[in-house]
Design goal:
InterPro entries: AAA+_ATPase (IPR003593), AAA_lid_NorR (IPR058031), CheY-like_superfamily (IPR011006), Homeodomain-like_sf (IPR009057), HTH_Fis (IPR002197), P-loop_NTPase (IPR027417), Sig_transdc_resp-reg_receiver (IPR001789), Sigma_54_int (IPR002078). Keywords: Activator, ATP-binding, Nucleotide-binding, Phosphoprotein, Transcription, Transcription regulation, Two-component regulatory system. This is C4-dicarboxylate ABC transporter. It comes from Thalassospira xiamenensis. The protein is of the alpha/beta class. It has three domains: about 15-140, 3-Layer(aba) Sandwich (Rossmann fold); about 155-325, 3-Layer(aba) Sandwich (Rossmann fold); about 330-465, no CATH class. The chain is about 45% helix and about 10% strand. It has a five-stranded parallel beta sheet with strand order 2-1-3-4-5, sandwiched between helices. Helix 3 (about 75-85) packs parallel to helix 4 (about 100-105) and helix 13 (about 335-350) crosses helix 15. It starts with 16 loop residues before the first strand and ends in an 11-residue tail after the last helix. The structure holds adenosine-5'-triphosphate. Adenosine-5'-triphosphate binds next to helix 7 and helix 15.
Length: about 475
């Protein structure tokens, strides 16, 4: 028989939902009319098997069922319902002489039973109690999930500034869906951390999170790394290799620094996203892949599109939902908390003592430019814990020359050899970029280093092109 469908997924029903299951039509009609008039949302079924189709773990209502029915009787039906969700209240309507069966069903976990014939008012009290109970169970579950999500996010993504709070709310909202997400933000703002949080709060969290840094894979092998290859596909392909995209099957594929992907590969990626299948190099057979895509960029992709370095059609495919992470200098409220937590963790890891630096020093944190964002802060907090001397001395060594401009003076002859070399490298690259107005190609030629190396060094040394002064 046809039956009306009701929403079994909504955690907060507008009106309480009742499923009526009875093979006797007269009872179905009278009961549903009465409950309908009483303001309930009704769904009727002539048999238990069709009723089971409407029941999901978050079904937000109550079931009223006959005991003696063809196909599946009330006891077996109750057991099946409780196997879906042991907290769904099932009220049995028993005929004369069915009471022993109803008692058995109660032992299996049914909520209540009422003897036929009954006046609707006879079941009202039990029904209302059952609905109230169900409402509480659903609300508690939603609350528990929310608390668990909040806990996961708060312990991972440190920060209570308004923009961090908004970001965490957006993550919690978007994570359980399947939409592709584009995470944008400067280097070190936590894009990968955000991508992992989305995966962990998604329904794919028991599957793989595969992170691919598009800037770190050599152009010559990028295709085989992403799509895989068959044995003998090219010289040196001695074995079949499963690519990163196939590895992410049923899980999440995180493509970091997407704008570094060569244009030809972008076209192939677009095809994979559209057709949801890959073809390994050296093969003609497509392989179905099912992944949730999260991309990250520290570059403005519309600009890359305008520069003809990024495909516009690919951008439209990946940016269904964009999460922007604010740079640290725009959420300075978070600085003391981040520093303190990173320093505490470092102290524990390195087994060193840590005491919060005195308040008068915190100004140094706020004045700093933080072009390397949270990664730079984490680094400094760890170095603070490892340095010797009192708080002022350590603070001076960390922020001494670099406060306010983010780059150390190459004449700074203190610190470890590694630190001094780092400062010199930073100075040389910044100087070259400044002289050539940020023109990376000219700088690559002058310093005789490939683009990839220059990009990596700029990232490691926290040099951003947009902070280079024009000449
Ligand atoms: N809000 C945060 N709370 C705790 N740790 C953070 C936070 N943001 C970033 N981090 C830490 O900072 C470091 C850099 O983060 P991550 O690698 O996610 O940045 P990213 O934006 O992906 O960087 P890149 O663009 O350079 O790849 C990591 O160690 C990460 O754990």
């Amino acid at each position: 028989m046809p039956h009306s469908k009701i929403d079994t997924t909504s955690a907060k029903p507008q009106t309480a939902q009742v499923i009526i299951v009875d093979d006797e039509e007269a009872l179905r009609v009278s009961l549903s009319q009465w409950l309908d008039l009483s303001g309930y949302t009704i769904c009727v079924h002539a048999d238990a098997i069709s009723a089971l189709e409407d029941i999901t773990p978050d079904f937000a209502g109550v079931i009223l069922t006959d005991v003696k029915m063809p196909k599946l009787d009330g006891i077996a039906f109750t057991k099946s319902v409780l196997a879906i969700d042991r907290d769904i209240p099932v009220i049995l309507m028993t005929g004369h002489g069915d009471v022993p069966m109803a008692v058995e069903a109660m032992k299996s976990g049914a909520y209540d039973f009422v003897e036929k014939p009954f006046e609707p008012n006879d079941i009202l009290e039990s029904l209302e109690r059952a609905i109230e109970k169900r409402k509480l169970v659903i609300e508690n579950r939603a609350l528990r999930t929310q608390i668990a999500q909040q806990g996961t996010l708060d312990s991972r993504l440190i920060g209570n500034s308004p923009s961090m709070r908004a970001l965490k709310a957006e993550i919690a909202n978007i994570a359980p869906t399947e939409v592709p997400v584009l995470v944008s933000g400067e280097t070190g703002t936590g894009k990968e951390l955000v991508a992992r949080a989305i995966h962990d709060l998604s329904t794919r969290n028991d599957r793989r999170f595969v992170a691919v840094n598009c800037a770190a894979i050599p152009e010559s092998t990028a295709e085989s790394e992403l799509f895989g290859h068959e044995k003998g596909a090219f010289t040196g392909a001695t074995n079949r290799r499963i690519g990163w995209i196939e590895h992410a099957d049923n899980g999440t594929l995180f493509l970091d620094e997407l704008s570094s992907m060569p244009l030809a590969l972008q076209a192939k990626l677009l095809r994979v996203i559209e057709q949801r299948e890959i073809v390994r190099l050296g093969s003609n057979t497509p392989v179905k892949v099912n992944f949730r895509l999260i991309c990250a960029t520290n570059e403005d992709l519309p600009t890359a599109v305008a520069d003809k370095r990024f495909r516009e059609d690919l951008l439209f495919r990946i940016n269904t939902f964009e999460l922007q992470i604010a740079p640290l200098r725009q959420r300075k409220d978070d600085l003391p908390l981040l520093f303190d937590i990173f320093a505490e963790r470092a102290a524990e890891n390195f087994d060193r003592p840590y005491e919060k630096p005195p308040a008068k020093l915190w100004g140094g944190l706020l004045a700093h430019e933080w072009s390397g964002n949270v990664r730079e802060l984490k680094n400094l907090a760890e170095r603070y814990v490892l340095l010797t001397g009192n708080a002022e001395e350590r603070w001076a060594r960390l922020f001494g020359n670099s406060i306010g401009n983010g780059a150390a003076d190459p004449a700074d002859k203190t610190g470890s050899l590694a630190d001094q070399l780092r400062h010199f490298e930073q100075h040389i690259i910044r100087d070259a970029l400044t002289r050539h107005n940020g023109n990376v190609k000219t700088v690559m030629d002058e310093l005789d280093i490939p683009r990839r190396t220059l990009n990596e060094k700029m990232k490691k040394l926290n040099i951003r092109r947009d902070t280079i002064e024009e000449r």
